[in-house]
Amino acid sequence: MEQTIRNQRVFFNNNNTKSLSFRVLALKKLKRLLQENEEILNNAIYKDFKKSSFDNYTNELSLLYKDIDEATKHLKKWASIKKVTTNLVNFPSKSYIIPEPLGVTLIIGAWNYPYQLSFAPAIAAIAAGNTILLKPSELPINTSNSIAKLINENFDPSFFKVIEGGIPETTTLLNQKFDKIFFTGSVPVGKIVYQAAAKNLTPVTLELGGKSPTIVTENCDLKTTVRRLMWSKYLNAGQTCIAPDYVYVHETIKENFLKECKKEIKASNYNFENGNYVQIIDEKNHTRLVNLIDKEKIYFGGKHNITNRYIEPTILKNVKDEDEIMKDEIFGPILPVLSYTNLSEIIIKIKERPKPLSCYIFTNDNKTRKKILNEISFGSGAINEAIMQISNSNLPFGGVGQSGIGSYHGESGFKTFSHYKSILEKPNWLELNLKYFPHSKIKLKIIKFLMKLEF
Ligand code: NAD
């Protein structure tokens, strides 16, 4: 591990990753490898938690192909020197900003979208001209193996290397010095990563989780709301960082809302055979989730089977803010439904919790939409939709407060893996002596005037 990092540093310091042609070739190669190995990647993820080829394409691989296409298309612009104006005090000179790669980067992935969460940051890191050490999550072991095989058999390890493993391997990695650490995972592990990075003052991006609220107002379009909400909640069996965690629905439509939810879940016929449902990732998470199901409050679902790690899409009703299920991120197919009558009151409750990764608002009322957007801080969100904001790479993706630090996707990913080096360039043909000794009142007056002007 130490040797690989040393080799990557030499490779980087020799400027091998800096030319745009190197970056574009690497990105195109990665896309070709992913495409050529789609079947292997599909089989691996199916073995791990029965994720179908349809889902693997729509919510993992297709996003990566799009990321690569976009990066190769816009790289010249993203990496170009940006001219800025100069203040008159510096006359005659010009000012510009040079985007430069950070260096040797470490990317640590989470398990729930294992290809997406490993390769999307890697694509941004390559585009920005860095070397990469990638540590995918060890939980989907077949997926981790296939990521390692794909990269380690095809890329120079001094540029791009996958290291597999769990806590011990990640801990060893975190003891090394990197120029950037990009972490996706839980809040508690995010804190470990942040502390490890602090020892070397390494910049970090933390893509974390939390409880993402959904507010359904009395004047929403109920059928469409429920359709979009149920799909986004039960996609990947609720194991999505930006899944709606819980719902506040207006008291006056609560019963109709619940009935529609039941209808929608039944119509969607979620099961492994249909390819629209996945297993809970492991027994530990299965047990954790089952313990969160309060039998007294089940409105729909609740069945489970640990042998094949199945938990039925479940809705809990009459949930209170103090209930166990409202304490931590659920990260599974259980939806607590709470009702409200006063919007301001639930806004206060949401704001008493850590700032969420996402927030969803289903409403036809502009005033309500504006009020929520103005008053609640969250990473990203959607109006009359849920989770689809992630598919627009023009929207920087990340958390705020406890749900994360920094963002990526599209150009924001390039920025995350870049340093913007500021330069003032001055010719030698003119030397004003204003700043030099001896000082005088008239000099100060001129300086004060010049400080206000730009050219
Ligand atoms: P996790 O924090 O348990 O693991 C993430 C990574 O950290 C894995 O690679 C794992 O090997 C490593 N790790 C685990 N424990 C460690 C330790 N003690 N020391 C060092 N490394 C350690 O998270 P997870 O279970 O893989 O993923 C679920 C969490 O990730 C949820 O909270 C979810 O919301 C969040 N998540 C966030 C995003 C996002 O983009 N914001 C995306 C997916 C998942």
TrEMBL record:
Gene3D superfamilies registered for this protein in UniProt: Aldehyde Dehydrogenase, Chain A, domain 1, Aldehyde Dehydrogenase, Chain A, domain 2
Catalytic residues (UniProt): 207
Sequence ranges assigned to domain Aldehyde dehydrogenase in this UniProt record: 18-423
Spans traversing the lipid bilayer: none
PROSITE patterns named in the record: ALDEHYDE_DEHYDR_CYS, ALDEHYDE_DEHYDR_GLU
Keywords: Oxidoreductase
InterPro entries: Ald_DH/histidinol_DH (IPR016161), Ald_DH_C (IPR016163), Ald_DH_CS_CYS (IPR016160), Ald_DH_CS_GLU (IPR029510), Ald_DH_N (IPR016162), Aldehyde_DH_dom (IPR015590), Aldehyde_DH_NAD(P) (IPR012394)
Family from the record: Belongs to the aldehyde dehydrogenase family.
Protein name: Aldehyde dehydrogenase
